[in-house]
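Residues pack. One example:


***
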Amino acid sequence: MSKFVTGVWNHKKKAVFFGGLAAWGISYGWEKKRTNDEMHILCLRAKAFGDELIKPGQSVRKAVVILNSGSHKSKGRKLYDNFAAPLLNLAGIQTTLYVTNDTAKLRDYLEHTEPTNAVIFAGGDSTIFECIQSFLTLEKPEFLGTPVGILPLGFTNVVYNSLRPDNLKETLKIAQAAMTIVEGYAQPTDVLEIRIGDKEEKEYALAGLQWGPLKDVEVTVPKFVMPPEIPKFYCPFL
């Protein structure tokens, strides 16, 4: 062991490499501990809601969760199970989970959903957009006034950040979003209804509106394999 340490210490390149590796390991371990400590605090807060007695005439809180498992490079389900589901379960919320990576099925899930206390959309911006479109075009009066929750499982999460801006890491952002749902926090939000000409079809937007050929190309870029040295910003011009 001493020979290994001496060899690394006397070799500049090895010393720099292992020094950087050690620094990265310490930073990763510290962030992991910080995340675990924050999750422990949030779990205790959620458990306090779950320990509350249900009064006569009250029912268990229910929520429908529509999860896009393809979010965040197919890490959506893992992020949900690790940082959102534990808080919802500890709070005593009875969840019905629909998992899909096909946004075309979102409306079918909503149409077959029974009345609930909240509908939670878990995914990135595209998932939230499709869910909002399906939810607002439902012809089910029992869903009028039902709160909608968002779990930001994507990379950019523009919609969620426009509603609740913060500087948290993605894991703690998901946990904090779940805790917001547990606490029943509600924030009125304006929705933009878009119609083209005299057509009856309607589109809805929350955080903004983008259209044009560059946006169309941006949507199709992830479907193609691009060399890593080509930034995605330049792909629409190729």
The mean pLDDT is 78. DSSP finds ten helices and six strands in the chain. Strands lie at 62-68, 94-100, 118-123, 148-152, 192-195, 202-205. The two ends are 53 Å apart (CA to CA).
